[in-house]
Amino acid sequence: MSPHRSDAPLRTAVVGTGGIARSSHLPALRTLAAEGRTEVVAAVDVDGPAARAFADSFSIPYASTDLDAMLAEVRPDLVVLCTPPAVHREQSVAALRAGAWVWCEKPPCPSLADYDAIEGAEKGGDADPYASIVFQHRFGSGARHVRRLLRDGAFGRPLVAHCQTTWYRDAAYYAVPWRGRWATEGGGPAMGHGIHQTDLLLDLMGPWSEVRGMAARLVHDVETEDVSTAQVRFEGGAVATLVNSVVSPDEVSRIRIDCERATIELTHLYGYRNADWRITPAPGVPEATVAGWRAFGEDEPSSHLAQLRCLVDDIGSGRRHSTSGPGGRRTLEFITALYKSAFTDAPVHAGDIGPGDPYYTELHGGAPGWAPAGSGEEDHA
């Protein structure tokens, strides 16, 4: 299949018309539509009136409750999934088989088995349709600048890092029936809340090699955890700590990386700008060097729009988007390893979890005290 013509707008279908579609995806799509890059041609939702109201509100010509029918009738170039993670595998595979690219809201899917099934539905060429994940924190100008400096060795070797997603969710949040459950939310804060910070940490630090995790239910009556922590070792030798929480009244998202020549810090909540990054040099680093490090350039906040611009460029150029294939899988593999380590009280190494491992098909792995009542360890791959 040849690349999508870069001068033609991507005909896009939005699947799931709830809050995240309205607040983040549709504004990004409409911004690019004004630039002639995208065109929203369909809306799909299991709630028919909701799909119709969404379509009417934003002048979208097609509305349906039937994804397969929409794919057959509309033949979109891009399908944007704003649905719960439990249906991401089925919907992604259907879209790929219909010849559409997929941009899927996080969490990507409930298991590595599901992710591998989605990737298996791709034809395999970079110019062929593929599925990618919403990991928008990789795409702000601050992350691009720091990533480039880290890759170029400007800061010296990364040595120690800290990644923190400490948020607060009250009982009313978990009163929504699908939250706090493995099958419908996909996991606790390690999966559903801290995944963006975790993904950014891995993107900046490079491949991880080992994780030792802990998880706890401290406040909420849920199947999943409400707190998780981890110790991480990276292939380059650096070590890190990771904290995910939904029981922290003073909410913050933070990454700190200490390198040989500088400390890099990012502090924000749900998205960052250039001003949220701070670079502190080690003694003796020339002022001119530091000035270059702090020259972030034009400010592009981390956002769905920032990532969508990159995705549309990649599709038009026949390139693999960085959150597709292995670039998306590594974050899900890390989170799976964190859960396995926490529930087995043993370290887990990159590459350890594959077919036949109970954690490959279920993030709880059937662990006593964590698996839902009546669940088994059947391989659903």
TrEMBL record:
Domain Gfo/Idh/MocA-like oxidoreductase N-terminal: from-to ranges: 10-118
Gene Ontology MF: a single term: nucleotide binding
InterPro entries: Gfo/Idh/MocA-like_OxRdtase_N, Gfo/Idh/MocA_Oxidoreductase, GFO_IDH_MocA-like_dom, NAD(P)-bd_dom_sf
GFO/IDH/MocA-like oxidoreductase domain location: 144-265
One Pfam short name: GFO_IDH_MocA
Protein name per UniProt: Gfo/Idh/MocA family oxidoreductase
